[in-house]
Design a protein that fits this description.
The complex is a heterodimer of chains A (912) and B (122). With 912 residues, chain A is mainly alpha-helical. Chain A has 33 helices and 7 strands. Chain A folds into 5 domains: 4-369 and 388-414, Sodium/glucose cotransporter; 417-540, no CATH class; 546-625, no CATH class; 629-738, Signal transduction histidine kinase, dimerisation/phosphotransfer (DHp) domain (Helix Hairpins, Orthogonal Bundle); 745-909, 2-Layer Sandwich (Heat Shock Protein 90), CATH 3.30.565.10. In chain A, the strands form 2 sheets. In chain A, strands 2-4-5-7-6 form a 5-stranded mixed β-sheet, with helices on one face. In chain A, strands 1-3 form a two-stranded antiparallel ribbon. Chain B has 122 residues and is α/β, with parallel strands linked by helices. Chain B has a 5-stranded parallel β-sheet, with helices on both faces.
Chain lengths: 912, 122
């Protein structure tokens, strides 16, 4: 007697066995003992994930309802495998050379690494696969229920939902353990594949055992089956067993398309493919497997219909027939076969979907939150990616479980399978177009996919929920808003077709049309064109065993790429030069390793090493771009961006510097002009006294004046002019020292009154000569100073002698007033002459700005310039005071902190 | 026949030196110190030859020369120019304006006399 616990125990043992198989295979694979893994038989058996619980149980049900039509779901894959040379070979080659990780990755990669396409295909795959996973859960729980029903006397009906959740949880655990143990760049899972192969054997053996039992054990051999078949055909409703040509073609095509586009099939066909030569064996072995799987479907169906009571679910004949005859062992085996079918499908599908979801949805999101993060943090990416995979697996199984709970397992198993098939088949145009048509563009693929998917959802997926679901009965019957042309199951008036064929027809026709027309109208990006060439010409490029080999087409592709980067003319010139070096005409040099190396270096300078390497590697096909390569490229791009912004900043800096330099240059030019003018002035000032000296010396030399008085006068002129020359030179030196800032100051303590006394004493001769009166208020002059009082006296002497020489009043008077204003000491010198004319006031402190023509006064025109420099050095100033009675100068000195050495005198000793 | 020479020079010592040299050589010398009134002084004095300084208060020697050369009565007057700025550009400017002789200060007394004699055709 089979108890529920026995059943669960057997399941448990079976899963443990799978664990062991997977574990051993994984271990051997890691030790590189992969010989038996790369065996074409393992590959062929792993393809049997195509045969799910739907095929295991459902095919019999299908046959019981529609006769031979179930064959179509085997016919499609058989045709694909037989025609492997044309399509599968290319698909596998592309998958391997591009290191494709999933069907979403393939489509995204083909269309310029478009993540939008990756996301789209992932979504379609998830939506298409979720009902299918639900279907597997349902079949497992249903098979439990069969045992429970028949043995109600022995054990209690278990909670089916509870069972389903245990099954889902167990599968999730297995998938996580063997599907995400580590990250393989090739996304290969040797352990899982081996376990799947074992399951393939189990389900084949189980089905054939049941078949043999049915035919020879209870059906009465071939003759008995034949009779039962006739009986079944007659009992079946009109036309159920007749062959409908359109449906056959449609369903065969559908299963062929699904075989290529189902995520789990792509996983085992392309991603898990270790060696391309496996395909050759699989091309006959897999059809044989399918043939054996289908061999006993009809016998089981007709015998089941004949023997089992009416109303028995034909989907479960494989289980119910052995049970009916109380063959517990056989029933157990059949149960394990179904269990195997379900688990292998769920495991592979969830691995495939998890790869897609994590690579195309979770990782891009994670990376986008990490923008600008240091490259070293990408080390976490591995861990994050693994966690994303595990999370995705749990999510996908949870989704399947909830779909199962919600749908309630109402629809027939086969129907769900076909709906899923039609959904994922929408990827076919983009995939096949991408492999065979260079003109296929990203926009076309996106538009086609969306169109096909929407139509599939509208005509097949949503109506499948039944009238109580998303679409109302009236909508199904009359179309939305009563528009008959938009009836979901009779689109554009195409009525009378089977819903699946109808949906397939419309979705694929419109999908293809939109894909082709948008592709023709849109212009692909350079990367897209590059990828298109790679995909379409994959078979012309390096073979799997030949390693790198290049041809002229590659050279042309390199030129096309180089033009994108270097600019058209430059790239052509460079290629021509390279060809010339090889002694070739034209623009296409031989792609020797030497040439490739130079091209890579040339491009490295423009786009960075990693990028250049990746781009050339892509064209040559020998190497492919891995995630690490892309991260390196991104890193490099980041660095180049930084360098660019640094360069921009530097350029800005340089522009500023250049402007400053040109300003300085202008100033220097100005100074140079001033210097020239100054030298010219000095020349004039020196030559003038020299002229007198020379003229009178020559007069003396030639005998001199007869008149002794005149002779004496001439001699005194020579003397005066010599003195004037000396003074001029002194002034020049003084000014030069002051202007260069090399002047040494000797500050000392002295009272203002004493400084003035000294200045007046020094100028007494000219004061007496000019008969000038000086007015002072000596009581104001008792201010203590701490400064270079000799320099200050020099300024005063200049001002006093200027007043004496240039004051044009008849009765010359000079008033000297000392006072304190706002923390500064003011010394004003005001005479009673006519003053400096307004227009000249701004010039008097400039060098050689002597105003009067009274050259005899002896000044070289440097006096006030020197005064200004001195006052500057003493932290003071000298200004002309306009609006006074005569010429008026104000000398200002700081009090308190007047010392250039910063010494401050207490205020109480300021006034002595 | 005593030749008349007018000296326009603002430096009194230089003017005195030139006067003395020329007087001793038998010239009739008159001096003028202002640039502003120099042209009028030339018209009044009607000299046979003119000694003209460049740097003069009020009006430069070049301007005076230009005025003289553009008036009929003074166009042909021989002019000896003196300048303390002996650059080539100064000489070029003077020659363009129609100077007869150009000397830089300090000058040689005998050279000046030679120039003057040549100018009055002696």
């Amino acid at each position: 007697m089979l108890t529920f616990n026995t059943l669960v125990g057997v399941c448990f043992l079976y899963v443990i066995m799978l664990f062991l198989v997977a574990f051993v295979a994984d271990k051997r694979a890691r030790r590189s003992k992969v010989r038996f893994l790369s065996s074409p038989m393992i590959y062929t058996l792993s393809l049997s994930v195509y045969c799910t619980a739907w095929t295991f149980y459902g095919a019999v049900g299908y046959a019981a309802r529609s006769g031979l039509e179930f064959v179509t779901i085997y016919l499609g894959p058989t045709l694909v495998m037989i025609g492997w040379w044309w399509f599968l070979r290319k698909l596998v080659r592309v998958g391997r050379s591009q290191r494709v990780t999933s069907i979403a990755d393939l489509v995204s990669s083909r269309y310029g690494k478009s993540n939008l396409l990756g996301v789209l295909v992932t979504l379609i795959a998830v939506i298409g696969t979720t009902p299918y996973i639900a279907l597997q859960l349902q079949s497992v729980t249903l098979s439990f229920a069969v045992f429970a029903r028949d043995r109600s006397a022995g054990w209690v009906i278990p909670d089916l939902e509870q069972t389903a959740i245990w099954v889902a949880g167990g599968l999730a655990l297995f998938t996580i353990l063997f599907g995400t143990r580590n990250l393989d760049v090739n996304e290969r899972h040797h352990g899982v594949v081996t376990a799947i192969a074992v399951e393939a054997v189990v389900k084949l053996v189980a089905l054939m055992a049941v078949g043999i039992f049915v035919v020879w054990g209870i059906g009465g051999g071939a003759q008995g089956i034949s009779a039962a078949m006739n009986e079944a055909i007659q009992a079946a409703p009109e036309g159920a067993w007749s062959l409908q040509g359109g449906r056959w073609v449609g369903l065969t095509f559908l299963s062929a398309a699904a075989f290529l586009t189902l995520p789990r099939m792509f996983q085992v066909l392309v991603v898990e493919n270790v060696d391309e030569r496996q395909l050759a064996t699989a091309s006959w072995a897999f059809p044989l497997y399918l043939f054996l799987m289908s061999l006993f479907v009809i016998p089981i169906a007709v015998v089941g219909l004949a023997i089992l009571p009416k109303g028995e679910n034909p989907d479960l004949f494989v289980l119910t027939l052995p049970l009916y005859f109380e063959r517990d062992g056989l029933a157990m085996l059949a149960f394990l076969g179904g269990f195997s079918s379900a688990t292998s499908m769920v495991i592979v599908a969830s691995i495939a979907l998890a790869t897609m979801v994590s690579n195309h949805i979770i990782m891009p999101l994670w990376l986008s939150t990490r923008l600008g993060v240091d490259a070293s943090e990408y080390r976490d990416a591995r861990q994050i990616l693994l966690s994303a995979r595990r999370l995705s697996i749990v999510g996908i199984l949870a989704l399947g479980y909830f779909y199962y709970r919600i749908s309630g397992g109402g629809a027939a198993l086969a129907a769900i399978g076909l709906i899923s098939f039609a959904g994922v088949a929408q990827v076919l145009p983009a995939m096949a177009g991408g492999l065979f048509w260079r003109g296929a563009s990203r926009s076309g693929a996106v538009a086609g996919l969306i169109t096909g998917f929407v139509i599939w959802a509208y005509t097949l997926f949503l109506p499948s929920f039944g009238e109580a679901g998303v679409m109302s009965a009236s909508m199904l019957a009359d179309g939305p808003w009563g528009i008959a042309a938009l009836r979901p199951q009779a689109l554009f008036g195409v009525d009378g077709l089977d819903p699946v064929v109808h949906a397939l027809f419309w979705s694929l026709i419109l999908n293809c049309s939109v894909f082709v027309s948008v592709s023709l109208l849109s212009f692909p990006s350079p990367l897209e064109r590059l990828q298109a060439a790679q995909f379409v010409n994959v078979l012309d490029q390096s073979g799997p065993a030949r390693g790198r080999s290049f041809n002229a087409a590659t050279s042309e592709d390199l030129l096309v790429m180089a033009q994108e980067i270097m600019g058209s003319d430059q790239a052509q010139a460079w290629f021509q030069a390279q060809a010339e070096q090889q002694g070739k005409q034209g623009y296409l040099p031989d792609t020797t390793p030497d040439f490739i190396g130079r091209l890579e270096r040339e491009l490295s300078g423009l786009v960075g090493t990693a990028t250049a390497h990746a781009m050339i590697g892509q064209i040559l096909g020998g190497t492919t771009v891995s995630v690490d390569d892309l991260l390196a490229v991104a890193d490099e791009t980041q660095q180049m961006l930084e360098q660019t912004s640094q360069l921009e900043a530097k350029q800005l800096e340089l522009t500023t510097t250049a402007r400053q330099l040109s300003e300085v240059n202008e100033k220097l030019t100005q100074l140079s002009i001033q210097k020239d003018a100054f030298l010219s002035q000095i020349s004039h000032e020196l030559r003038t006294p020299m002229t007198s000296i020379r003229a009178f010396s020559e007069i003396l030399r030639d005998g001199g004046a007869n008149d002794p008085e005149a002779a004496a006068r001439h001699a005194s002129i020579i003397h005066d002019e010599s003195v004037r020359l000396t003074r001029l030179l002194d002034d020049l030196l003084d000014l030069s020292v002051l202007e260069n800032g090399q002047v040494q100051l000797y500050p000392r303590r002295e009272v203002m009154r004493d400084v003035l006394d000294r200045a007046i004493a020094a100028t007494s001769s000219v004061i007496d000569q000019e008969k000038m009166h000086i007015h002072r208020n000596r009581s104001d002059e008792g201010v203590a100073l701490y400064t270079d009082t000799d320099r200050l006296a020099q300024v005063f002497i200049n001002l006093i002698s200027n007043a004496a020489k240039y004051c044009d009043a008849k009765d010359k008077r000079l008033a000297i007033r000392v006072r304190q204003r706002g923390g500064r000491l003011q010394v004003d010198f005001v005479d009673n002459g006519s003053g400096v004319p307004l227009e000249s006031q701004s010039m008097i402190f400039e060098k050689f700005s002597r105003l009067s023509d009274q050259a005899a006064a002896g000044g070289a025109g440097l006096g006030l310039a020197i005064c200004r420099e001195i006052m500057d050095k003493l932290d003071g100033s000298i200004t002309y005071l306009p609006g006074q009675s005569g010429a008026a100068f104000r000398v200002t000195l700081p009090i308190g902190t007047q010392s250039p050495f910063g010494r401050t005198w207490p205020s109480d000793i300021n006034h002595l | 026949m005593t030749k008349q020479v007018l000296v326009i020079e603002d430096e009194p010592n230089i003017a005195e030196a030139i006067s003395f040299i020329l007087s001793r050589d038998g010239w009739s010398v008159s001096t003028h110190a202002s640039g502003t009134t120099a042209v009028q002084a030339v018209r009044d004095a009607k000299p046979d030859v003119l000694i003209l300084d460049v740097m003069l208060p009020g009006k430069s020697g070049y301007d005076i020369l230009q005025d003289l050369r553009s008036a009929d009565d003074t166009r042909a007057l021989p002019v000896l120019m003196l300048t303390a700025r002996g650059q080539k550009t100064d000489r070029d400017l003077a020659e363009r304006l129609g100077v007869n002789r150009f000397m830089t200060k300090p000058f040689s007394n005998s050279e000046m006399l030679t120039n003057l004699r040549e100018l009055v055709g002696g």
